[in-house]
Amino acid sequence: MPKWWRPGTACSPAFALLVAVGLLLWLFISRTPADPDLWGHLRFGLDMLAAGTARLADTYSFTSDRAWINHEWLAEVLMALSYRALGTWGLTLLRLSAVAVIAGIVFLVARDEDASPAARDILVGLAVLTTYTRTMMVRPQMFSIALVCVLLYTLRRAVPGQVRALWIVPLLFVAWVNLHGGWIVGIAVLGAWTAAALMESRPATEKLTLAAVAAASLTATLVNPYGVRMWQFLAATVGPERADIADWMPITSLSAIVLTVEAILPALVLLALLRRGPRTGVRVPLRHWIVVAALVAATIKIGRVDAFLQASIAILLAPFVLQGVAAIGATLKAPFWDSPRVPQIAVAAAVIAAGVLGASRLGTIAVLGNWIPDRGAAQHLRMNAPGVRLLTWYNWGEYAIWQLAPAGIRVSMDGRRETVYSDQVVSDHYAFYDGKPGTLDYPDRIGADVIWIPVEFPVVPQLRAHGWRVAYESPRSVILRRDPLSTRQVAAVQDEPRAFPWP
Length: 503
Description:
Layout: E1 10-11, H1 13-29, E2 32-33, H2 38-51, H3 73-86, H4 88-112, H5 117-130, H6 141-157, H7 169-179, H8 183-198, H9 204-220, H10 228-237, H11 256-262, H12 264-276, H13 286-301, H14 306-316, H15 318-331, E3 342-343, H16 344-360, E4 365-366, H17 375-384, E5 389-392, H18 394-404, E6 410-411, H19 423-433, H20 442-446, E7 450-454, H21 459-464, E8 469-473, E9 477-481
């Protein structure tokens, strides 16, 4: 029986509030929306399991002109194994495992700081909440957020005189380089931390160990199916110039709600610093501040680094976050703390109800968002256009691979983008979508038989005026052919509840 539970008694308002916030967080993170690339990640992972190799040739696209360096192959294999074992339950549990690593690491940080149970739970909850933008979907990036937490905690524990534990870091990067390209951020974090630590007054043997660990970690990233070609691929494709991808936009492009949530941890740190003034107290090493500052600069430029920054604040600046939490708690006075107590039976009922509701959602990955095609289009293509070369929008490409590849249909572009397509192929597609001059013959140049794109794209009326006839149309998408087998007009999109793999 839990210590807080005594039949016939009541919970304090503070405890009831903490439980309520925790339940809301659980209901929040238990919901898993589908990422546009999930269909492809799972398809490729299943292919690798069937072939017994990570190095697959691309058979899904007819315009790919780059050798496929699958820098997320291990993440896709883990997704495939989870899906084969438990279906969508396996995928959501895999995602929640990454969230659990984040929560567990921050729990250890709070324990190391001797935080009170309430402050500990708040710190853990805030870490989970503020990194959720990158862990809410089943995608390889979730592994990077979990691994950066492990890295940061390992660095945090490596105080002068206790650096031998750092030798686990190279092993961390062996896994990381095969899971997701976010290992580049990890190497940058390790480099910034090591450079700052080497400037401290340490014995020469410790400095040699620090430098050796950093060098071994960088070398460990060569332990992948492609060797140095992985470095060459990422050097050529990773950069801030991706204005068409929301994740790669500056942090100011994020929504006001997301920015408000991501301001919580920095605000708590600032509050603690303002309240402390010139007084001495808990100090955070300069190397911690340098890592956080480097991630601040990166996040300002590229919004998708935000979760790395939030993790660094929760782990490296935990003393100040906890002081900020304590400062807010101290300002809450009666009548809040003296308000009527909440019956324990009510709290228990809320815990059970929220637990059951959250658990019931774990078996569903909801297909949501404006990017979604209507499933009738995929059904039409399977039935009426087997074996064609399909010019499509990249956001639908991996959905199309999952749905249409069994019918022998290949796509012109998908979410792998720079992974298998040159810059020229990508830019040509965008020029075509926008209906720019000289692009109407692009389908003929690449040998596309059928076009499937969002109905609102500027090129659609131009195609209709130049010999392309509608084979299928809905308020969401249109299929065009030179010689359609039939013309079909759909009056409305069926927006019934959608769940992966849909349909």
